């Protein structure tokens, strides 16, 4: 019997090089619930991240683990050789696909960072990092 990262993901497809931060998230939430971290320690989203969460995020159905009053949103940033040094905030799948084509053209993967954010209480946590690569069938 072989173990691979994909076998632990309950059927979700994960590309090579994906780093998932669910365990780190669980540790932070456990420390918060035990009183080791205060709400101000974990609800500290930068104003630019909060703005991105309002303007160019993807909604989820998951409630905020801190306040439970709002649904989390996902903000995706992409960094690559032809992008600005501060990266690019991606608003939709079409834009991500266009960037993937550029990554293929430069023969370097662009790197995506997906951050979950609560627009209400400012909870934020890096959810995953992965290389953006254009699918070979395109």
What's the short version?
With 138 residues, this protein is α+β, with helices and mostly antiparallel strands. It has helices at residues 22-33, 39-42, 47-55, 93-106, and strands at residues 19-20, 58-63, 71-79, 88-90, 110-117, 124-132.
Distance between the termini: 34 Å
How would a textbook summarize the main sheet? 6 strands, antiparallel
Query: Structural class from helices and strands?
Result: alpha+beta
Tell me the total number of β-strands.
6
Strand content: 25-35%
Overall geometric form: elongated
Whole-number count of domains: 1
Q: Please estimate the helix content.
A: 25-40%
Topology order in helix (H) and strand (E) letters: EHHHEEEHEE
Number of helices: 4
Average of per-residue pLDDT values? 83
- Point out poorly predicted stretches: 1-14
Oligomer: single chain
The radius of gyration is 16 Å
């Amino acid at each position: 019997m072989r173990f691979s990262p994909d076998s632990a993901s309950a059927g979700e497809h994960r590309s090579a090089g994906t780093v998932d931060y669910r365990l780190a998230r669980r540790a932070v939430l456990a420390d918060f619930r035990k009183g080791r971290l205060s709400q101000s320690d974990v609800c500290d989203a930068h104003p630019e991240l909060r703005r991105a969460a309002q303007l160019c995020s993807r909604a989820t159905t998951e409630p905020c683990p801190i306040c439970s009053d709002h649904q989390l949103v996902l903000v995706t940033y992409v960094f690559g050789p032809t992008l600005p040094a501060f990266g690019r905030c991606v608003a939709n799948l079409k834009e991500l696909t266009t960037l993937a084509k550029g990554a293929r053209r430069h023969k370097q993967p662009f790197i995506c960072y997906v951050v979950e954010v609560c627009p209400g209480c400012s909870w934020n946590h890096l959810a995953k990092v992965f290389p953006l690569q254009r699918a070979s069938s395109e």
